[in-house]
Amino acid sequence: xxxxKPRSTTHTILLFIISFTFLSVWLPFLRSLFxxxxxxxxxxxxxxxxxxxxxxxxxxxxxxxxxxxxxxxxGMYWMKNRKLLFGLLILWMVHVFGSLxxxxxxxxxxxxGDALNVHFDLTYLILVLTLVSIVxxxxxxxxxxxxxxxxxxxxxRNRLMAIAIFAPLPxxxxxxxxxxxxxxxxxxGVLISIAQALVLPLVFLPxxxxx
Length: 211
Description:
By secondary structure, the protein is mainly alpha-helical. It is 64% helix and 9% strand. Strands 1-2 form a two-stranded antiparallel ribbon. Strands 3-4 form a two-stranded antiparallel ribbon.
């Protein structure tokens, strides 16, 4: 597998912003799978309220979100069809920020993290991230035709990053399934999951190996 463009600051920053928004997907996706019916998740989406205790019909929505984010993580540097990539980025913008801004018009954009007892208003953060993401997408599109295709293959650095990031999954399963809600084991499992989502772009960056 060959990288389709050299690493760029705009693409990489955008990738990490995407990973930040991936938090709202990765946490309920993992916890529903690992905690089962003891975990309740909920999400407002363009006027619809999706929720579930563990895995139910609405869990399909989380699966589709994971697929979308996975395609974008991979696509940023490795997808040959660059127009498709930017189509996916526009879909991500509408899906994440469009939904949040729509819900914000109905009231406050609040985040509730029960495991860590975190509750805060996302309004200003979402507005800033939306504007920054639009600017980065425009800049990224402009650099698409100016950079020559690098001679960089998917290599052992990418594989090592993937192993390091996903290796804790068995530990998370134990912590989240066997731990008490909102207690230390549960909170450690959540923190590991948060770290996974935030550093996931490291798996998909093009790395040049020194000879």
